[in-house]
Backbone:
């Protein structure tokens, strides 16, 4: 399978028009990362957006001493590096490999150029990205809400 | 009339044989009747536990206990459960039940099964998981997603390890907050649903946990292509009589105690979104 065919099979692109997706052919290649490798670092430019095929990644935020707080785990089917979408295109978190990871890495400059040059592709891609961001946002809210705690009295 | 012929209104005396603390506010009691053996129960059913002089509370059955007893896992959150938390082994409680319909073990047969549990929601699911483990060949792939606030809040760690190791069950455990070194997942249960890679055509899902968690889990399952009719939930309301007379547990046209607590989602009028239902 070519990287583009693998990308088409990623859940993010389920049902995506293959003709439109073809604009990413020059942008995508497969990458592999070993345990504890860092895919992206907080406050540094995101050069690649990763569509995860296998493995596990930890998003964490670290202080200047290198003490890190785990935020969320990502795995096959997820997208790591959504901050490529808005300037200054910097990562807010470290993304560290927990279990060896295979991703389809999409060059972010190439991706932005493809979206600018082909608005049909850009619009449909952006709808997927927004859905992914929305799902992540809702999941984060649930994390904050301590949703597994016993409910308090109903509001009257 | 109960299945064993007893009067459902009359509490039977049961002795608490053992009481074990699971987490900071959750404990498990092994109980058995003073006379005879515990009546049979279906996974997902509940009992009414009566602390004499204090009150009665509906508690899901969490499984069999040694010597013909039953296990109840309880969160100390209300007046009665806070008293139960303090009792010593040997105490006699009143027990009515079992009540309710239970999980749809027959409907699940032949299907892949996805189980999503949040917090104490694993307690009523434990007998179902043990059933699936015992009759493993009758069911397809079994995936469990279990979420809790933090690692110290996780229930049944020994069982979780056994289910994964011995029962051909894929178990994913996730917490909202963890310290560095936590080997499991971090995040809400909903973010693990896509990773199951379920086949909507042959999968049934069962969900148990706080109502907000169940609502978002249903949305996540639907995003994966599952129909409302393929999702089962266990509902919770204040139950008092447990046999469909008093009306305390009304949910639309249903009595949760008598018609539930397990409902197929498409039959759950209001679908978890109608206010004050």
Residues:
């Amino acid at each position: 399978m070519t990287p583009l065919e693998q990308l088409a099979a990623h859940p993010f692109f389920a049902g995506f028009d293959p003709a439109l997706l073809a604009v990413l052919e020059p942008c995508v290649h497969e990458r592999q990362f070993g345990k504890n490798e860092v895919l992206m670092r907080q406050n540094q430019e995101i050069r690649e957006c990763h569509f995860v095929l296998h493995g596990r990644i930890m998003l964490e935020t670290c202080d200047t001493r290198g003490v890190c707080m785990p935020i969320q785990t990502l795995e096959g089917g997820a997208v790591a590096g959504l901050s490529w979408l808005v300037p200054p295109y910097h990562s807010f978190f470290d993304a560290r490999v927990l279990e060896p990871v295979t991703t389809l890495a999409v060059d972010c400059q190439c991706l932005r150029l493809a979206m600018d040059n082909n608005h049909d592709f850009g619009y449909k891609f952006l709808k997927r990205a927004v859905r992914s961001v929305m799902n992540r946002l809702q999941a984060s809210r649930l994390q904050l809400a301590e949703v597994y705690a016993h409910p308090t009295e109903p509001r009257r | 009339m109960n299945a064993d012929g007893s009067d459902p209104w009359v509490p039977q005396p049961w002795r608490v044989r053992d009481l074990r603390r699971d987490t900071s506010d959750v404990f498990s009691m092994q109980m058995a009747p003073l006379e005879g053996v515990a009546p049979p129960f279906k996974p997902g059913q509940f009992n009414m536990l009566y602390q004499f002089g204090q009150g009665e509370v509906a508690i899901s059955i969490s499984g069999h206990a040694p010597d013909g007893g039953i296990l109840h896992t309880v969160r100390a959150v209300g007046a009665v459960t806070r008293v139960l938390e303090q009792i010593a082994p040997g105490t006699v409680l009143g027990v009515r039940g079992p009540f309710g319909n239970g999980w749809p073990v027959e409907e699940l047969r032949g299907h892949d099964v996805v189980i999503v549990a949040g917090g104490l929601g694993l307690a009523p699911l434990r007998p179902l998981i043990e059933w699936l483990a015992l009759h493993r060949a009758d069911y397809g792939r079994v995936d469990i997603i279990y979420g809790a606030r933090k690692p110290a809040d996780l229930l049944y760690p020994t069982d979780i390890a056994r289910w994964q190791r011995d029962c051909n069950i894929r178990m994913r455990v996730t917490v909202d907050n963890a310290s560095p070194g936590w080997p499991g997942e971090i995040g809400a249960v909903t973010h693990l649903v896509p990773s199951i890679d379920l086949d909507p055509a042959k999968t049934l899902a069962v969900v148990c946990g706080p109502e907000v968690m169940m609502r978002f889990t249903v949305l996540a399952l639907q995003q994966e292509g599952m129909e409302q009719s393929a999702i089962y939930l266990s509902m919770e309301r204040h139950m008092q009589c447990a046999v469909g007379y008093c009306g305390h547990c009304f949910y639309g046209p249903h009595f949760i105690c008598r018609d539930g607590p397990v409902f197929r989602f498409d039959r759950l009028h209001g679908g978890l979104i109608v206010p004050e239902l």
The helical segments of chain A are 3-9, 18-21, 108-117, 119-144. Chain A has a mean pLDDT of 90.
